[in-house]
Design a protein that fits this description.
Low-confidence stretches: 1-17, 427-458, 539-570
Largest sheet: 5 strands, mixed
Structural class: alpha+beta
Strand order of the largest sheet: 3-4-7-6-5
Oligomer: single chain
Mean pLDDT: 86
Shape: globular
């Protein structure tokens, strides 16, 4: 009898303890109210016009593609093994497997999204085999187009379009004889004796699986993450390479919100997401769990040990060993933009949860081109589409260094890069715009020369893409800023890297120019600028709209008072 009473007492004590999800106890264990369920239904419906969900047929198409890739990998591993004198009976068993990670593995990919995948092979297969014979096999597949290998990347990858779906396929060679079909990548000891590139390649799968394991309710997490990803893309803060947050970072922030509100439905999680991270004390790190104490010699994020980690501005730490900061590219400018967007999102979702605004307002793009008076435009030029894809990829990866250089200028308060890459409407007229940099255009003296040059342009089909950086200057009278050194250092660094990696080809150019707002129409289609002006007039955030109305009312009152005073004096 005493034992039973003691057990009851122990159970009561355990129930009184706050439940812990992740690093801390939950902020609230409350379940959803009827209005929360209604807001969640509204949220799901609001995502549909943005192609946030795929049809059953489209999902099946992805599975078929991955199955074909899996067969290709197994066949290739077997054939390479036999070519390396392995008996056929053993070669049939060594296996090899395709794993997915990122948005597809999380179950939050949108219609037409690419797939992040990983090719895992046994120890007898080398990376040189992957970027050699397997790359050639892929190029010969009738369904595969735009296949290119990026072997020298920080995480080596083969990029391709497989039957209409973009796929980034990484490579990892494990120190194992066989890779069975049911093989689990979660075991930390798998990383023992692997090289850094393989560990980085495995990291995507291991982190994705760990995130799914650490959220209290996967379905609520998925719907909330779909909403946050769409919001981040619409608001221009979804890009790891440009210093904003990438997909895995947004997933970890939503997962942390789910841990803090484990019984909340998706609409509440989205609202609480903005509440939590608009008030977060950066650079306090976001962690989903206590870091694993694994000692395999790989570097992990730890500001107590690594001096460089102490300078990270908005650390979000991956939950799988070796733990890394997924946001080390964040700069002071991108941090300010992200935090401002968190606060704006908080205002809008406050109104939504009160029934005073619609979810579509959360997904309305802000006004970038009407926000700043000064801009820098990066023009990336190539002779053909194939070269252009590669050239743009390199330039985009380097833009954040230009941002860092601009931030060091004491007169620049903010350098806000727009992640959207714009196509120049008429790339063949690029030479005309060189007037702005002091170059003069010579008039053609012979009409035959004009015909020849136009024919050459038609054959080569030059491409031009643009990135824009909004500049906010410190308010100083008679300010005259020279950006020549920052711009020259950036263009020199890009060209030097292109030469070093043997990427630079004829026709590849990069030009950087300073513009005023009124000059944007020379570079952008008028419909883009008109849309922004219309949006800025009609779709402000609720708080901004109230402030605007108050200011307008106050202004009207002042005008009325002035008129009344003047009439009295008259």
């Amino acid at each position: 009898m005493w034992t039973i009473d003691a057990n009851k007492q122990q159970n009561a004590t355990d129930n009184d303890k706050p439940k812990t999800f992740g690093m801390t106890s939950a902020i609230s264990l409350s379940g959803p109210k009827p209005e929360d369920l209604q807001r969640t239904t509204e949220l799901q419906k609001s995502l549909e016009p943005f192609d946030a969900f795929e049809t059953e047929a489209e999902l099946n198409h992805r599975m078929e593609i991955l199955a074909k890739l899996n067969v290709l990998v197994k066949t290739w591993v077997r054939d390479v093994s036999i070519a390396k004198n392995m008996p056929q009976q053993l070669a049939e068993k060594v296996g090899g497997k395709i794993y997915t990670f990122g948005s597809y593995r999380l179950g939050v990919h949108h219609k037409g999204a690419d797939i992040d995948a990983l090719c895992v092979v046994p120890r007898n297969i080398e990376r040189s085999d992957y970027f050699g014979s397997f790359f050639e096999i892929l190029k010969k597949q009738p369904e595969v187009t735009e296949c290119r290998a990026v072997e020298e990347a920080f995480v080596p990858v083969i990029k391709m379009n497989f039957d209409g779906i973009e796929i980034d396929l990484l490579f990892a060679r494990l120190a194992l004889k066989e890779i069975p079909d049911d093989f689990d990548l979660r075991d930390d000891l798998l990383l023992k004796n692997l090289d850094q590139k393989c560990v980085r390649s495995l990291n995507g799968c291991r982190v994705t699986d760990e995130i799914l394991r650490l959220v209290p309710n996967v379905e609520n997490f998925r719907l909330a993450l779909r909403a946050i990803k769409l919001w981040a893309k619409k608001h221009g803060i979804y890009s790891n390479s440009l210093g904003y947050f990438g997909g895995v970072s947004w997933a970890m922030l939503v997962a942390r919100t789910c841990q803090l509100y484990p019984n909340a439905v998706a609409a509440t999680i989205v609202h609480k997401f903005f509440l939590v991270f608009s008030q977060w004390k950066w650079p306090q790190p976001v962690l989903l769990k206590q870091p694993d104490n694994v000692n395999l010699g790989f570097p992990v994020w730890d500001p107590r040990v690594n001096a460089a980690d102490r300078y990270h501005l908005m650390p979000i730490i991956t939950p799988a060993y070796p733990q890394q900061n997924s946001t080390f590219n964040v700069s002071s400018s991108t941090r300010r933009v992200i935090i401002d967007e968190f606060k704006s999102g908080m205002e809008i979702t406050d109104e939504i949860m009160l029934g005073k605004a619609q979810w579509c307002q959360l997904f309305t793009a802000p006004n970038f081109f009407t926000k700043y008076r000064h801009f820098i435009v990066l023009l990336v030029i190539s002779n053909n589409a194939e070269d252009h894809l590669e050239w743009c990829g390199l330039v985009e990866a380097k833009i954040r260094f230009l941002i860092l250089s601009l931030e060091r200028n004491p007169h620049i308060a903010l350098a806000h890069v727009n992640p959207k890459c714009f196509d120049r409407p008429e790339p063949e007229t690029i030479a005309d715009s060189q007037k702005s940099s002091g170059a003069e255009n010579a008039a053609a003296s012979d009409s035959n020369d004009d015909d020849a040059s136009s024919n050459t342009a038609a054959k080569e089909k030059p491409s031009c893409s643009m990135w824009f950086i909004g500049l906010d200057f410190e308010r100083v009278d008679n300010l005259n800023i020279d950006l020549t050194e920052s711009i020259q250092n950036f263009t020199d660094a890009v060209h030097k890297h292109a030469v070093h990696t043997k990427m630079l080809k004829d026709g590849m150019k990069i030009e950087v120019r300073h513009l005023r707002r009124k000059q944007l129409s020379d570079y952008l289609d008028s419909s883009i600028l008109k849309k922004e002006r219309k949006t800025s007039e009609g779709l402000e955030s609720p708080a901004a709209k109230r402030a605007h109305d108050d200011a307008h009312n106050n202004s009207s009152k002042k005008k009325k008072k002035i008129i009344e005073n003047s009439e009295t004096k008259g």
